[in-house]
Amino acid sequence: xxxxLVAGANGTTGKKxxxxxxxxxxFNPIAMVRKEAQVAYFKAKNIETVIADLEQDVSVAFNxxxxxxxxxxxxxxxxxxxxxxxxxxxxxxxSNKNKVKKFVMLSSMGADxxxxxxxxxxxxxxKHNADEYxxxxxxxYSIVRPGSLTNxxxxxxxxxxxxxxxxxxxxxNDVAQTLVSTLNDDIANKTTFxxxxxxxxxxxxxxxxxxxxx
Length: 214
What we know:
The chain is α/β, with parallel strands linked by helices.
């Protein structure tokens, strides 16, 4: 089984990702949390944790072998440069140093052109900078850009394009499932794509992606 480090594991979407990985026969989740108090939730499920702060040195998160990384952390708009941008860069650098096989970035629709956004421009700029840093890092990556997140049920269906040219919503459950599916070796390598709720099974939608797409 591959060890998957999940940054932002204590977040709403992060917990869903970790739980999906924990149910998988292929992946072993390692929940990266910022505080000791956040460990108990995962310990109760026998899920391995590591305490590391994205605003500081994150090398401790790689003390054990890490095969792949999911970046699902977010500052909630409070520290977009420190966490969403620079924190992502720190984790990308550490992933490179430790020869991680794939880095899956939870980004956001609108991060390709943050200057065009009417809202959340600072957040989208930070996500844009993190995405571009990942693309130029030399790592294998997938950058996933969902629309507005909801707390809806898992449908296991999405609409996916490299650029959808429209706005919309998608449930955190479907985003989490997409991110976990993207961890597979032959899916969405060096690819950036957008997702919304839709009618195509996640696996089928991901299979439409070409191997390399900027």
